[in-house]
Amino acid sequence: MTAHVRRKTILAFLGPAVAALVLVGIAPLLYAVWKSLHNFNLTKQAQTKFVGLENYAAVLTDPVFWQAMGRTATLFFISVPIQIALGLLIAIVLHRPGLTVFKTLTRLSLVLPMATTYAVVGLLAQVMLNQKYGVINQMLGWVGIDPVNFIGDPTNAFIGVIIWDIWQWTPFVALVLLAGLSTVPPEIEEAAQLETKSQWLVLRYVQLPFLIPSLVAVLILRTADTLKLFDMPFTMTRGGPGSATEFIAVLIERVGNRQFDIGMASAQAIIMLALTIFLARLYIRFFYREVN
Amino acid sequence: MAAPVQRRALWAEGLLLVAICAFCIFPFYWMVTTSLKTQVVALESPPVWVFTPTLANYWEVLFEDKVGVSLINSIIVAVCTTTLAVVLGTPAAYALARFEFRGKQDLWFWFITNRFVSPVVLAFPVFLISRELGLRDTHLALILMYLTFTLPIVIWICTDQFRSIPRELDEAALLEGASQWRIFRSICLPLAMPGVAVSSILSFIFSWNELLFAYILAPKAAKTAPAMAVTFMEGYDVPYGKIMATSTLIVIPVLIFALIASKHLVRGLTMGAVK
Amino acid sequence: WSLEEAAKPYAGTEIEVLFLDRPGYNAAIKMLPEFEAATGIKVNYTTVPYENALGEQVRDFAAGGDLDVALIDLVWIGNFAENGWLVPSETFINNAELADPELDMADFFPLVLDAFGSWNGVNYGLPFDNYSGLLFYNRCMLEAAGFDKPPATWQEVMDTYGPALTKDGKYAYALQSKRNETQSADSFARFLWPFGGSFLNAEFKSNLNSPESQAGLQFRQDLMKFMPEGIVAYDHAETVNAFAQGDVAMITEWSAFYSTVVSPETSKVADCVEIAPEPTGPAGRKPALGGFSLAVAAQADEAEQAAGWLFIQWVTSKAKAGQYLEMGGVPARQSAYADPALAETYKFIPALVESWKEGVPEFRPRFAEWPAITEIVQEWGTKMMLGEVSIDEGAKTIGEKMEAVLAEAGYYDGKKPLAQ
Amino acid sequence: MAEVKLVGVDKFYGSQQALHGVSLDIADGEFVVFVGPSGCGKSTLLRSIAGLESISGGTVSIGGQDVTGRAPSERDVAMVFQSYALYPHMTVRENMDFGMKINGFAPADRERRIAEAARVLQLEPYLDRKPSQLSGGQRQRVAIGRAIVKQPKVFLFDEPLSNLDAKLRVQMRVELEALHSELRATMIYVTHDQVEAMTMADKIVVLNAGRVEQVGSPMELYHHPRTEFVAGFIGAPSMNFLDIRSEGGRIACGETVIGTAAPVPGAVRLGIRPEHVGLVAAGSGDMGGKVVLRETLGGDAYLYVRTEAGQVVVRAEGDTALDHGAEVGLSFPANRVHLFGADGVTLSSGGVAA
Amino acid sequence: MAEVKLVGVDKFYGSQQALHGVSLDIADGEFVVFVGPSGCGKSTLLRSIAGLESISGGTVSIGGQDVTGRAPSERDVAMVFQSYALYPHMTVRENMDFGMKINGFAPADRERRIAEAARVLQLEPYLDRKPSQLSGGQRQRVAIGRAIVKQPKVFLFDEPLSNLDAKLRVQMRVELEALHSELRATMIYVTHDQVEAMTMADKIVVLNAGRVEQVGSPMELYHHPRTEFVAGFIGAPSMNFLDIRSEGGRIACGETVIGTAAPVPGAVRLGIRPEHVGLVAAGSGDMGGKVVLRETLGGDAYLYVRTEAGQVVVRAEGDTALDHGAEVGLSFPANRVHLFGADGVTLSSGGVAA
Ligand SMILES: Nc1ncnc2c1ncn2[C@@H]1O[C@H](COP(=O)(O)OP(=O)(O)OP(=O)(O)O)[C@@H](O)[C@H]1O
Ligand SMILES: Nc1ncnc2c1ncn2[C@@H]1O[C@H](COP(=O)(O)OP(=O)(O)OP(=O)(O)O)[C@@H](O)[C@H]1O
Ligand SMILES: [Mg+2]
Ligand SMILES: [Mg+2]
C-alpha cells in the first residue's frame, strides 16, 4: 500500500489545506507575534516603538492577567469534571438498549444546547437568572429558596457562568462519549456483565479504557474552548461584577478591543496559545501511553 | 442484552431521560416563549408562563432591523466555510490516514493546533490584512478566517473516519487501476460520510455562532446574525423580546441542519485515533 | 444659499456614519429620507452597540477605513482629535459654499458645544444626541410615603426619602452601576462632583483621595442600602425597568429615557412619572453630562467630507430641531426650548435646560487616555461597591493606575499640556 | 446439581421469532453441542441461557433454580465468546482476575485459582502479557482460563474455535475435551464444525429455524436422523439424496429399480452417505454412472458420479484408479439406506422403521 | 502467456525478513495453492505478486514481462480478498463496473462483461443490491465477479473462503474449480484449509517461515514430502511421528524393534499417516498399544493409541468395536512409512529413498 504513493500525490492531497491554514492561521499569527514585541496602541500610534519582550514581562508580572488565568482555571476545574460526569451519565443511559424512541428524542434534544449561539446563551442567562423576572429564581421559589442574585453577586455570577457552560457543553461531551462507548465491542461488555451486575464496575474497568481517546478529545477541546471562552460571559456579565467573571479571553479582548493596546493583548494571547498547545501535547503524551 | 429489564429500572431510566430532555430543552423553550412576549410581559415579576403570544417581535426584527439580511449573511458565510473546510480538509485527512511520510504526527498536531488559536489573537492582524486586500466587511474575509477552526475539526474527525475504513478497499481499487484521487473520491469519501456529516455540522455550528471575528471583520454589509443579536443588547433599553426572537431565528437554521444530520452524529464523533 | 444648491456637486455621494440604537438616532433615521431627497446624498448608517462604537471607529480610523462621519461621545473627543482623525469645523464654516448662513453656533448650549464637540479650544463636532442626568421619580410612590415634592439634596435622599421609600420589596433609589461605561460615567462620577470631588487635581494627579472625593464615594456606598440588591449588575436597562415596573421610586438617568418611562407599552407607571433636576450635593448640582456630537472624519475624501458636513449641519440645525425633538431626539439648540408650551408635552425640558446650565464639561475627563482610565474605574469602582476593597483603598488603586497611564502618556514630563 | 433445563423458550426480535418453544434437558456434567445452519438461533439460545438476551416466553433453570429473571452475573455461568472478548487493556492475569476481584474474592484464593488455571492451560509464561501480544490459540486459552477461575456451574462456548487455523483447532479441541473430563462441569458448546460436534459431544442438539430438530448422541444422529434435515446436516461430505418412487412393492429411482431397498409406503426420497455407497464394476450394483470429478484428499478420494437419478458422491480409497470419465456401478447396502417422506420425516434408517 | 515467475524475492518489514529468496515458476493456466502455517508469508508473497507490497529484492515477471517496478494496476492481475473488500456503497453491478469504468471501457462492453460474469456466477437476481444485503456466499461471488470482468492474466485469491461456513465452503470450492476450468486463467490461491489445497491445486507451494519448503502436485506432497515439515503439514489428521534409532541394520522405536521398515542410515524419525496404520490383534503387528480415546466422526473413527514410543492416531471404521481401554496391535506397512533425518529432511518415503 505504501509502495506507490509518490510525493507529488501526498502534496496534492495535503497542499491546499496546509496552504489555506498557513494563509489564514500562520500569517496573522506571525503578525501578532511581531506586534507583541511592540508598544502598540491603536489610539496612540504615534508612540509605537519596538520594545522586545517588555510586553511579555509586563504580562507575566501582571496580577490581573494571572487572576484572569486563575479564574479560567477555576472554571475549567469545576465545570469540565461536571460536564464529563454528567456527559458520561447521559452517554451510559443512551448507550443502554431499550426505550429506543425515547432515546432518539433525547439524542436530538442534546443538539439544542450545542447549537445555541454562544452569545445568545449569555443573553438567555441574563433573562433566566435575573433576580426579579428570572424564571430560575421563580423555580427556586417553588421549592422554598429565596431569590438568588445571580448576576450581581461575584460568586453567584461565577456560578452562573459555570451553570451555563455546563448546560451548553455537557451534551457535546455526552455525544462524544456516546460515540466512544459505541467503540466498545459488545462481547466485551457482555463478558463483563457475566461477572457483575454493577454498571459502575463495568464502566470503571471495562468501558473506561475504551473511552480514553474520547476523553482526551474532550479534554483538548474543552481546554481550548475554556481558554477561548468569551461570548457567553461577555454578553452575560461583561466580566463583572467587579472582575468576578473576567476570564482570560474576556481580559484580552478588553485590553485589545477596548483599551486598544494591541501589543499587550497580542503578548497575552500568545502566552495563552503557548499554554494551550503545551496542555494539548501533555494530554496526548500522558493519556495515550495508557492505551498503547 | 441485560435480560431482566425490570420495570422499576425502566421507569427510572425513563425519568432520567425526561430530566435530560428537560435540562436541554427548557432554556430553549424559555427563549422561544420570551420571543413571543411584549417587553412588559417579558419583564413581569414573577415571570409569567401563560400569556397572549405576539409575533410582533419577529415582525420587527425581520423587517425593520435587518435581521433577515444578517441571517442570509450568516448562511452564506457558514455554508461557504463549511464547504470549503470539507473540500480542503477531507483530502488532507485522507492523506494523514493513509499515506506514510515524515512528520505526519507533527503535521496532524499542527492542524489541530489551529483550533486552539483564540480569535482574539488573530482578529486584529486579520483586520489590517483584510483592509489591505479590500476584504473588509466581505463574506470572504469571514469565510477564510473561519477556516482556522473549521478545517481542524474536519481534519480531526475525518482522519479518524478514514482510518476506520479497511485498507483492503483501497487496495482492491488500486488493483483495478484507480488513482489515489479516484480512490479517495469514489471509495473512501462516500464511506466516511458519518465523519464528513458530523464535521460539517460542527463546522456549521461553530462558524454560524462565531461572534468576535464577525463583529470586527464584518461591521456592516456582511454582518452576521450573532453580531446582530448583541446589537440589540446595547441599546439603552434591552428589548428582550426582540433579542430572543433574533436568537430563535439564529438557532433554528442550525437546529434544522443538525437534526437532519443527527443520524450520523454519534457514528462520526469517535475522535479516537489521536496517536 | 440653499441646501439643494450646496449639495449639487455631491449628489450621488455616499457617506458612512455610525449610529446607536437609541431614540435620537431613530429620530434621525426617520428624517433621513428628506435629506436624501433634497441633496441626492446617500447616508449609510450602521447601528452598533454603544460598547462597540468606540472600538469600531478606532479600528476604522486606525486602518484608514471608510467612515466619513464620526460619532463622538463626550469622552472620546480628546482621543479622536489628538489622533488627527477629525476635521475642525472651521474648515467648513469658513467655506461659504458649504456653510449654512443659519448655522448659528451660538444657539447651541455653550456647555454642550464645548463638552461634546470641542477639544483644546477647537471645535470639531456639532452636538447631536444630547443627554443630561435627570431625576425621574414616581410621584405616586412619593405621595404615598407622604412627600409632595422630589428631594432637592442628596442628603435628603439619604435621611428621609431613603428610609421612607425602602420597604415591602420596593426601593427608594437605583443607581445603574454595571461594570462598563455605566459604572464610571453614571455611578462613580455622579457622586464625585456634587460633593466637590474630581478625578484629577490641577497637577493632573489623582484627586480621588481628597476628603471631598472620599465623601462622595462613601456617600454612594452608604446609599446602597436604599438600592435593590445586586445594583452592580444594573445597567441602564435594568434600572429603567425597575423604575418602570414600579419597584423603585427614583432613578437618576439620562433624559433620553423619558420616552421609555412614559410609554404605557414599556412602563407600568407611565402616569406617575415626574422629572426633576438631579439632587444637589455640598458642592452644588453638577449633574451628569453626556452625549454625542457628529464630526467629519479626516480620512474621508473631499466630496465625502463636504457631504458629511452638509448632513451634520442639517441634522443639528435650528430648523430641524423641533422636528427632531418631536420624533424623540433631544436637540442642543437653545432656540428649540424657547416655547414654554413644550414643557407641557416634554416634562424633562425644564430640568434639562437647568442642568445644562450647571454641568461640568470634564464630568468625565475627556482626554485621549480616558478609554484606559475608564476601564480602571469600572473594575475598581464595582469592587468598591461590592465591598471587595475599601473606599480608601479602591480610590488609591484607581489613582495609582490612572497616574501610571497618564505618566505613560507624557503628561508629567511636560511632553503634553495638561488639557482636558 | 448444575443441570440446565429449558421449558418452552420463545424469543422475539421485534416481530421476528428467533426461538420457537425450545425445551431442553441438559444433565449435570454433560457436554452438549448446538449445531444448525447459520441464523438458526444457536447463539440466541446460548445467550438466553447466559441471560444476555431476555427471553420472551418460557423458563430457564440452572441447577434446579429458575433463573429466568436473573441478571447474567447471578446465574453462575461462564461464557467463552467467538472473538474471545478479552479485555484488551488488561494482562492475562488481570483478565482472569477481574471477575474474582470485583466479586470480592480473597486475594490468596484468587491467586491460587489463577495459578491453577494457568497450569492447566499452560499459560504460565504469558501471565503478564496483554492479549494483543498473544497468538490466537493462546488468546483462546486465556478466554477459557477466565471462565475456569470462576468455577461456574455451566460453561457456555459460542464457536470458540472458529477463529483458529485448522491445526490449532484440532489441538484446542483435544484440550477442551481434556478439560471437560477434568472439571466434569456442564458444558454447552455452539459450533459450525462437524468434526467438533461429532467428537466432543455427549449430546448434540440440532436446531433448525429456531426449533429443536433432534437431540441425541452423535452416533444416534449419524445413524438414525429423525428428519431429512438432520440426515443432511450431520456427516461430511453430506448424505446423497435421490428422488424415488415407491411403486407396487419396488423402489424406483429415475428409470432404475433399486432392489436392495425395501419399499416403505410414502417414501419419496432415499438417502445414503458417500462412505456407504459401494463401488462395484460397471453394470453391476444397484445403479450405474460415470465419474465426472475426482477429489483426492490423500488417504481418501471423493468421486462425483453422475447417474440418471442425479449426482452421487462416493468415497473411495485415496489411491483409487478410477478417475474422470470412468464408468462405475454403485451399490446401496440396505442397512445403510435411509428413506424419507414428503414432509422430510425419516421413515426408515438402515432398514429399520424410525 | 500468463505465466508467473518469481526469482529470489526478498521482503523486509523493517529489519524483519518476511520472504527469503523465494523463486517460483507458475505456468499459464495453472491453479497454484500456497499453504503454510500462519505468519509464514503467504499473504506477503501474494501481495508482492499483485504489487501491493514493494519487494526488497528479486524480480517478479508476469507473462514474460518483468513487472517488479510496476504499479498494481499495470500488472494485469485481479485479487479476491479474504474480507472480499466489496465497496459497501455500491451495488453489485457498480462493484463490478467500477474498474472498467475508470479504465474507460466502452459502456456496451462493460455491460456485456457484467452480464456474462453474473450469468457464470448466478448473480443476476442480485445485481442491484448492495453488498450488505447479500449472504456470505453471494458476497464471495461478487468479489470473484469483480475479478472476472477484468479478464486478467492472473487471479489472486487470499483465503477467499475462510469467512464462509462449512457447507457453503464446499459449494464455493466446487464453483471455483468449475470457474477455473472454464476460464483457464492462471490462479494463485492462498488457504489454510487442507481440503481446499488438496482438491483444488494443480500445484501446491508449501511455505515455511518465508521460504519455499516444497512445490509439487497434491499427491506428490502427500506421498513424497520432501521434509518432515511438509509431511506433518499435509494431510489431516496429521502424520504420526515416532522417534527411532537406526541400529545395526534394525529400526528400533522405543524398546520395540520394527521389522517392516528397512533401516536407512541417519534416520531419526519415522512417520506414518493415521489412515495407513494397520489395526491388528493385540500382540501381533509391529507394535502394541492401548486405546486411550476414540473420536467417532460417523463414517470414520480415530483411535488414539498409547504406545511405548508415544501416541499414535489410527483411523478405523466408524462402527469399530474398539474403544477406550482396548489393547490393539499396530502394523506399519513398509510402503507407507516415511523416514526423516535429524535435519528434518526426508530420507525415504514408502520404502523409496527420497
Ligand atoms: N439483535 C437482533 N435483532 C434482530 N434479529 C436478530 C438479532 N440477533 C439475532 N437475530 C436473528 O435471530 C436469528 C437467530 O440468530 P442467531 O445469532 O442466534 O443465529 P446463529 O444460529 O447463532 O447463527 P450463526 O451460526 O450465523 O452464528 C437470525 O435470524 C438472526 O437474524
Ligand atoms: N505490515 C507489516 N509490518 C510488519 N510485519 C509484517 C507486516 N505484514 C506482515 N508482517 C509479518 O510478515 C510475516 C508474514 O506475514 P503474512 O501476512 O504474509 O503471513 P500469512 O502467511 O499470510 O499468515 P496468515 O495465515 O496468518 O494470514 C509475519 O511474520 C508478519 O508478522
Ligand atoms: Mg451465532
Ligand atoms: Mg494471510
From TrEMBL, chain A:
Residues 69-283 form the ABC transmembrane type-1 domain. It holds the Pfam family BPD_transp_1. InterPro entries: MetI-like, MetI-like_sf. Its main location: membrane. The chain crosses the membrane at residues 12-34, 73-94, 106-129, 157-181, 202-224, 262-284. CDD domains: TM_PBP2. The keyword Transit peptide does not apply. Signal peptide: none annotated. It is a multi-pass membrane protein. Keywords: Cell membrane, Membrane, Transmembrane, Transmembrane helix, Transport. The keyword Acetylation does not apply. It is found in: Cell membrane. Belongs to the binding-protein-dependent transport system permease family. This is Sugar ABC transporter permease. The lineage of its organism: Bacteria, Pseudomonadati, Pseudomonadota, Alphaproteobacteria, Rhodobacterales.
From TrEMBL, chain B:
The chain crosses the membrane at residues 9-30, 71-95, 107-128, 140-159, 187-208, 243-261. It is a multi-pass membrane protein. Its main location: membrane. Keywords: Cell membrane, Membrane, Transmembrane, Transmembrane helix, Transport. CDD domains: TM_PBP2. InterPro entries: BP-dep_ABC_trans_perm, MetI-like, MetI-like_sf. Residues 71-261 form the ABC transmembrane type-1 domain. It is found in: Cell membrane. It comes from the Bacteria. Pfam families: BPD_transp_1. Belongs to the binding-protein-dependent transport system permease family. This is Carbohydrate ABC transporter permease. It comes from Paragemmobacter amnigenus. The lineage of its organism: Bacteria, Pseudomonadati, Pseudomonadota, Alphaproteobacteria, Rhodobacterales.
TrEMBL record, chains D, E:
Residues 4-234 form the ABC transporter domain. NCBIfam families: PRK11650.1 (NF008653). Keywords: ATP-binding, Nucleotide-binding, Transport. Transmembrane segments: none annotated. It comes from the Bacteria. Belongs to the ABC transporter superfamily. One of its GO terms (molecular function) is ATP binding. PANTHER family: MALTODEXTRIN IMPORT ATP-BINDING PROTEIN MSMX, MALTOSE_MALTODEXTRIN IMPORT ATP-BINDING PROTEIN MALK. The keyword Secreted does not apply. InterPro entries: AAA+_ATPase (IPR003593), ABC_transporter-like_ATP-bd (IPR003439), ABC_transporter-like_CS (IPR017871), ABC_transpr_MalK-like (IPR015855), ABC_transpr_MalK/UgpC-like (IPR047641), Mo/tungstate-bd_C_term_dom (IPR008995), NA-bd_OB-fold (IPR012340), P-loop_NTPase (IPR027417). Pfam families: ABC_tran, TOBE_2. This is Sn-glycerol-3-phosphate ABC transporter ATP-binding protein UgpC. PROSITE patterns: ABC_TRANSPORTER_1, ABC_TRANSPORTER_2.
